[in-house]
Amino acid sequence: MVVGIAPGQFKDPKEALRITIDCIKFLKRNLELPILAGCSSPIITNETSKFADGVLFNYVKPEFLNWILRFAKRKLFFAAYGPSLILPSEFFEDLLIASAIVISSKSFVKKFGFEDLFEKINTINFQKLVKRRQEGKSIKNLPEYKILESNSETLLENFTISGDFKNVIKRIKSLLNCCDHVILSDPFFRDDNAMKHLGKIVKSVECKKYL
Q1: In the structure, what pLDDT confidence band is assigned to residue 9 with cuts at 50, 70 and 90?
Q2: Which residues pair with 185 in a beta bridge?
Q3: Could you tell me the pTM of the whole model?
Q4: DSSP three-state, residue 6
């Protein structure tokens, strides 16, 4: 068992960093469990890597992962996690929503030239979209969906572990060349078809690390 800590939504990045570090220190004093920090920006990676036992990076492309890894202060347990799904799937809309939500680091956006995409995404009310999906309704008739749909190729390629079975395997293997662990996050485990392939995925990556 491990404990993962991430900043969440804060208006003040400095406050988010302070609270995250305080939580990590508190948990390390009171729990005999590995404490992992969820990171997406250089600053929080640099600071939390001084105290945490490992880091969870919200990047699923080797190019991005290799960039953020440089900011860790010491060698730790490093994991990559992000929206995942075997396509086609009834949860495609959820995958698009998740892929856009993970783009949160301004330094990352500037470094890799995603400024225009970031500006478009910032106009979307994600709470509205998530609530509608939780109600079992489609978001395809909403104007916000058009933004996601028109940028779907960029979102899926850069911010998800998705595609057909072979492509998902390929993406996982490429990430395991950069880090210790790969986590398939939402909506993967809500899809019955994806779950049926999980055992095959584990065997195909030929790795003892858990997914």
Answers
A1: low
A2: 83
A3: 0.89
A4: coil
Domain spans, the chain:
3-204
Element (H, E) at 35: strand 35-39
Tokens 């019955």: give the residue: 192
Measure CA 51 to chain center. Answer: 21
**Percent of all residues in the chain with a pLDDT value above 70, rounded to a whole number:** 95
The answer for 206, left when phi > 0, alpha when psi is -120 to 50, beta otherwise, is left
Cα–Cα distance for residue pair 10/5, rounded to 1 Å: 14
Spatial separation of the C-alpha atoms in residues 180 and 193, rounded to whole Å: 26
Instruction: For the chain, give the number of residues.
Output: 211
pLDDT in tens, 109-128: 999 999 999 999 999 999 99
Query: What are the phi and psi torsion angles at 207 (to 5°)?
Result: -140, 145
